[in-house]
Write a structure and sequence with these properties.
The chain is built from 1 helix and no strands. With 25 residues, the protein is mainly alpha-helical. The longest helix has 22 residues. The radius of gyration is 11 Å and the shape is rod-shaped.
């Protein structure tokens, strides 16, 4: 996997975690 894809999936994962936190709170 190239770095751009890795970065992108990492950001998506992070933003979905943040979204989950905001939905919970």
């Amino acid at each position: 996997m190239d770095k751009a894809k890795l970065d992108n999936s990492f950001r998506e994962d992070l933003s979905s975690q943040l979204l989950a936190k905001t939905l919970i709170n």
